[in-house]
UniProtKB/TrEMBL annotation:
The lineage of its organism: Bacteria, Pseudomonadati, Bacteroidota, Chitinophagia, Chitinophagales. It comes from Filimonas zeae. The keyword Signal applies. Pfam families: Amidohydro_1. Residues 1-20 form the signal peptide. Transmembrane segments: none annotated. This is Amidohydrolase.
Length: 436
């Protein structure tokens, strides 16, 4: 009888476990000391500490190095013997939490606003902290993300979130860190559908149209600057008010574009308005890398695993571009914007860059500290240094290598976060079903 009850209890436990798809909860705040010992620690700034220890207290890193004593008493200790320890990876530009089902259910998407000039739109207000995609990102070491709006010419403001939260208020890591604009194309490139339908061939002078559009954006910024210079206003203009942090240099201007002419226009914005400019996309940035460096324009490379921009480029040019930017001294970060992979391949994009000219530590920096600098959160994260948040991942293998990367632990602000997600639960469900 006892054996029967034991079997029934075990069956109920397993059944409950495999059916529960929404039982992954944000980790509770941990107050106290935490030690991660005996690991190979990749600081994120190019340095590596062999057989090192990280001391954390109340969610902040206190010390990193060798021979750090671990006191007796009420402390948590995690051994990373034989494992690799890294800063939490950062996804710089994404619609995570704004788009749940790509090209599918409209009701699950909240990433695009109506209208053309929407600087007052705030992505953080629409962010869904319960997105199931966040769990799969944590399992690949991605602990923070720059949630970004889309649509129109001026899309709105992005915010940095941490990926283990109950709601958007808890998730907010740095709110409204940048304003995003979509630079008009200087090239006529009709869609495949338009070509099939015999349309899109007579579109006028693309360069003239683009320059006219750029000038209209400048006019908008000039009007906003004049408005903000007034001591008092007869009427409040919420669009101009939303640009105040940008003119006060509390925000950066993220200019989305791949073409050289689009990036030259971005440099012009920096010169006229004094904005701190970041190019998002930048597939042709390798052509003007010294100019970008001279004007202190950072780059976020969006689609590294892609075909080259033009027929004349080397077929592997997207793989080589990070090394070109590194050599020129351009501050750059890597991204994964693919809907198909749902952003989880970020570390493997960096692994490709490490195969085509970057060192592994430089490639790691392109998805950690460089990203933190571009997003304006380098004082809190991006590297494993004293005073920063304990955003840490532990992997059994090289985090940049798809074959060996296996994240076994992740900490966000010192909290031991769950690596379970919809896919790991389905894996266990069908293992149980087939007796594996």
């Amino acid at each position: 009888m006892k054996k029967t009850f034991l079997h029934i209890g075990l069956l109920l436990l397993l059944t409950g476990a495999v059916k529960a798809q929404d039982d992954v909860y944000p980790a509770k705040e941990y107050k106290g000391k935490l030690f991660i010992t005996n690991g190979t620690i990749h600081i994120g700034n190019g340095q590596v500490v062999e057989n090192g220890t990280i001391e954390v207290e109340n969610g902040k890193i206190v010390r990193v190095g060798q021979n750090i004593p671990v006191p007796a008493g009420d402390v948590k200790v995690f051994s990373a013997q034989g494992k690799q320890v890294y800063p939490g990876l950062i996804l710089p530009i994404t619609d995570l939490g704004l788009k749940e089902i790509a090209n599918g259910v409209r009701g699950s998407n909240d990433y695009r606003e109506l209208g053309d000039l929407n600087p007052s739109v705030r992505a953080i207000a629409a962010y869904n902290a319960d997105t199931r995609i966040a769990g799969t990102l944590r399992a690949n070491g991605i602990l923070l993300a720059g949630v970004t709006p889309q649509g129109g010419t001026i899309s709105g403001s992005s915010s940095v979130v941490q990926l283990d939260a109950w709601n958007y208020e808890d998730a907010a890591y740095k709110t409204d860190n940048g304003i995003h604009i979509e630079m008009p194309s200087f090239i006529n490139r009709p869609s495949r559908f338009a070509i099939m339908m015999g349309a899109g061939r007579e579109q006028g002078d693309a360069t003239k149209q683009a320059l006219d559009k750029v000038e209209s954006i400048k006019v908008f910024f000039r009007q906003a600057k004049a408005y903000l210079a007034e001591s008092a206003h007869k009427e409040v203009n919420i669009k101009f008010e939303a640009l105040k942090p940008l003119f006060e240099k509390k925000q950066k201007l993220f200019v989305h574009g791949d073409q050289v002419k689009q990036m030259l226009a971005a440099i012009d914005f920096a010169k006229e308005f004094g904005f701190s400019v970041v190019v998002v996309g930048g597939s042709e940035s390798w052509q003007i890398a010294p100019l970008l460096q001279q004007n202190e324009v950072a780059v976020i490379l969006n689609d590294q695993h892609a075909l080259p921009s033009t027929e004349d480029d080397d077929v592997d040019q997207p793989y080589k571009t990070p090394a070109v930017l590194q050599k020129a001294g351009v501050l750059f970060a890597l991204n994964d914007a693919h809907d198909e992979s749902r952003y989880r391949n970020l570390p493997f994009n960096a692994g490709t860059a490490a195969t085509y000219g970057l060192t592994k530590e430089q490639a790691l920096q392109a998805i950690t500290l460089n990203t933190a600098r571009i997003l304006g959160v380098e004082d809190k994260t991006g590297s494993l240094e004293a005073g920063k948040d304990a955003n840490i991942i532990i992997s059994e293998g090289d985090i940049l290598d798809m074959k060996t990367s296996l994240v076994t632990k992740a900490f966000i602000q010192g909290r031991d976060v769950s690596l379970q997600n919809k896919q790991t639960q389905l894996y266990e469900r069908y293992k149980y079903k087939y007796g594996l």
